[in-house]
Every structure is written in structure tokens, then in C-alpha cells.
Amino acid sequence: MMKRINFLLSVLAIASVVLLNPLAQAQDTIPTKTLPFDIDPRKRMPDWEIEEKREGTFMTGLPRVEFDPIRGFGAGGNAFLFINKDKDDPFFEYTPYRHRVSTEFFIFENGRIRYALQYDAPYIFNSKWRLRADAVLWEDPNAQYWGIGRNSLQPLRFTDQITGRMRTFSRVSDYEDNLQIATQDEAGIYRSNTHFNEMIQREQLYNLLGERTFFGGKLRLMFGYEMLFTNFSSYNGRPVEVAFDREGEEVEAINNQTLVDIERNDGTWDRFNLSGFQDASDRWKFTSMLAGALIYDTRDFEPDPSEGIFLQYSHEYSVPWLGSEFDFHKFMIQGQYIKTLKRWSGGKNRVTFAGMTSFGYIFGNDINFIEMWDLSSQAEAGGILVLGGDRSVRGFREARFLAPTVLLMNYELRTRFWSFRILNQRMNLGANLFYDAGSVWDHPSDMNFKKWVGAPGIGARLAWNQSTIIRLDFAASREGSQTFLGFGHIF
């Protein structure tokens, strides 16, 4: 009953907007002299941003070398093609770009590979429509699995491979060192738990989304379609790359059962109606999904806003009549508040507070378990992985805390203090202080103020030709510290 009510409310909300304002501009304000339709003045970029905005077509990009505590060293790069047109374009002062094509290729030491191609066109064909499209393919031999449910908030515990007693680990590095210690079974075979919290993940994701603006661009109705192909397998019984005996000598070993094996068989997955794990099968699972969102947005510049609010309700719906092998709903409610506290140098430099709160819930008769990993793949900046990783609670490991009900909060104090040019490229350098926090519950009715996790951090930002934001973050938590290099603010 609950899922039907939520879905009907979502449909009614979307239908009411469409019916009240079909294609036309009946409810919109009177067009201005320079625009084909009115856009709220709050959506206009700040004057200094307009003065600095580059005209025409250009590319930005960056070769990258990173270190990930899970996947080792990696190399690759990102490239962005921007079409800004010129200052005579009616939307020049209201959009970060008219068209953007972004590509990514990355390969890590552990064999993880990611390809991505994305397209974004606000006010396409000088209309009130925006078009987005994504194609993402990746394979990760060390995808993280730390358990599902409220119990994932518990400290790290495992049998001490030296003493044989159950032990609580305060640092994730000590925990993983213990997993690598192999013991001999009765047949003399060394067995290790090196991959206890890992699985092999393969995914292909294809998205096509359309947005229609209303009320001067402040209200947006988004709808789209997603195809997701997934394939997972376990490390149970596979050879381990590196393992040591109790004396610290390297030995050849095979992996014991992993946590994903255990929870698939002990009733945990049945309790949450989860499926989608093939266990060494070549068959891919197919998730066919409709998505919709209602967005209220007054931010002045999407890639790097200095003022405004952002409110979003998104809903994803997967059901067999769409051809999907799963049956579930997932929704997210998100709010962002951005306020500049101080400006100087003609507004080019500033101190800005940015805060975001996101709440998500997933439910259904047959849920693809990997959908637990993000609050919503339709979030504007992309899927928000929970809880842990470079766009969530940054001090904890990726996907460290998972459950059907998730609350995530991110607070940042963003500074921009130096503007300069290199080879005709406009650069703005800044630094961030941030704090991330959140919690997970089995059901919304279980929500309380106990067992929250949080982590502070510091970061640097480089705005390249305004629309390309290079992000470097360092965060520390009770379980360790992590460093991330990426593109774009996390919100």
C-alpha cells in the first residue's frame, strides 16, 4: 500500500505541473526583450562571472594520476568540450554553457576500468527544455561490501587471525591487515579473508533525461529513462593475490567466504527483498527504470554557485512491465542552501557557506541490491554513493554504511582567494573546510538520533574557465583518513 501511495503522489505532482502549464507559457511571466521567455533575475550569473566567462567553443581537460586506498594507483583523464556561444546569445548570462560533452577514462592498479560519456544542453534550441544523456561502463575487481542494514554502523569486528579471538578494530587499515593473514585447514591449504568485504562488479548504465522549466527557470520538471546492466561475482574459493602466514611470510592461499556470501544466505537479503547477485555467472541482470523529479532552483551558477537554494524530490520506478527483472521504488528528498558571507576584489573572491541534506528510501518486492549504493542516480551531480566515499561521508570507506533508509548531510565553507590566467585560461583558486555526517536505518519508522557517523576535512578547489571545477579533498574519521581528486563540487 505504501509504495502505491508514494507512486501515485509522485504521478499526481508531476501531472499537475504538466496540466497547469503544458508546453506553453501561459503561467510564465512576460518575455523580456533579449530572451525568448522570462528567466528569474536570481538565475543570472554574477556580473564578474559574466565578465570572465569565455566565449565560443573550447576544451578543458586533465590527465590524472591518483591513489585510492582500495584500488592502488590509477591513471587516466577527463576531457570537456564546451560550447558557450558569444555574449550576444540570449542565454549567455544565464547558463554555464549551451552544450557540454564530457568524457572520462580511468584504469587503476587493481584492474578497475571506467569509461564515461555525458552530454548536457540547457535551454536546448532556445527552448525551455534541457537534455541530458549518459553512458557509463565500468568494471571493479574490488567493489566494497560492508554489510546492509542498521548493523553496518557497528565498529569493525573480525576474528583475530593470530589469537583466534573476536576483536574490534578502530582503524580500517589494521582490520584489512588482519584479513590478509592466512590459516591452514585440515588439508594443509592456506585460506585467507583478504576479500571478505569485496566483490567483483561489472556495470553498464545508459540514461536519457529531459527537463522542462517553469516560472522563470526556478521550477524544473525532469523525467527520463535508465537502463542498467549488472553482473557480480564473489571471491569465495578464488586464489588470493597476497596473503601471509602468522609469521609474516607470504603464502599462496584461497579466499574464504565473503560477507556478501554470508548475508545472501543468512536471511539478511530476504529481510530486505534483495537480489541481483549471479555468483560467477556470465548472465547480466537488467534493470529498466523510469525516473522523475521536481526541482526548485534559484542558484546563480550551477557549477560553482555563490547564492541560492536547491530543492529536489526524485523518484525512480522499476517494474517488470518495463522489461525489468526487478520491482522496486526509490525516492530522494534533497535540499541545498548556498550563501556568500563575504566578497572582495570586485566580487571575484569570496567566502561561501554551502550545506546539503539528502534523505533517501528504497522499497519493493524485488530490489536490485546495488541500488542501495546510491541515494539517487538521478541527482543533478550524479549518483550520491552512501555512506562513505568521495561524494558522501568522505572520511569513511566507499559504501561503508548501507541500508534502505539513509540521511546524509554535507556542510562546506568554500573560499575563493586568487584569480589568475595561464595561457589564456582563466583560473580561480580556493580552499574548503567541510564536515560530512549521516546515518542509516532499516525503515523510516526506525529513524532516531543515535549512532551517527561524521568526519571533518579540508580541500582545495581550482575553477578552470569557470565551468570545470577540480576538487582535492582530505578527510579523516574514526576509522582512518582518505584523499580524493576529482571534478566538480560534491553538490
Question: What key attributes describe this structure?
Answer:
491 residues; Porin; globular; 49% strand; 5 helices; 17-stranded mixed sheet; mainly beta; 4-stranded mixed sheet; disordered N terminus; single chain
Overview of the molecule:
It is a single chain. It is built from 5 helices and 23 strands. The model is unreliable at 1-33 (pLDDT under 50). The chain has one domain (2-146, 197-234, 277-487): Porin, CATH 2.40.160. It is globular, with a radius of gyration of 24 Å. It has helices spanning 2-20, 47-52, 172-179, 259-265, 268-272; strands at 57-68, 72-83, 99-108, 113-121, 129-144, 156-159, 166-169, 183-184, 190-192, 198-214, 219-233, 239-240, 253-255, 274-275, 285-297, 307-318, 327-344, 349-368, 405-422, 425-441, 453-464, 468-477, 480-487. The two termini are 34 Å apart. The strands form 3 sheets. It has a 17-stranded mixed sheet that branches. Strands 8-9-13-12 form a 4-stranded mixed sheet, with no helix packed on it. With 491 residues, it is mainly beta.
Radius of gyration, whole Å: 24 Å
Strand content of the residues, in percent? Answer: over 45%
For this structure, what is the CATH homologous superfamily?
A: membrane protein fhac: a member of the omp85/tpsb transporter family
CATH class: Mainly Beta
Oligomer: single chain
Query: How many structural domains can be distinguished in the coordinates?
Result: 1
Largest sheet: 17 strands, mixed
Strand and helix order: HHEEEEEEEHEEEEEEHHEEEEEEEEEE
What's the CATH architecture? Beta Barrel
Any idea what the shape is?
globular
Number of helices, counting only DSSP H or I runs of 4 residues or more: 5
Tally of DSSP β-strands: 23
Helix content: under 10%
- State the end-to-end distance: 34 Å
Poorly predicted ranges:
1-33
Can you tell me the CATH topology? Porin
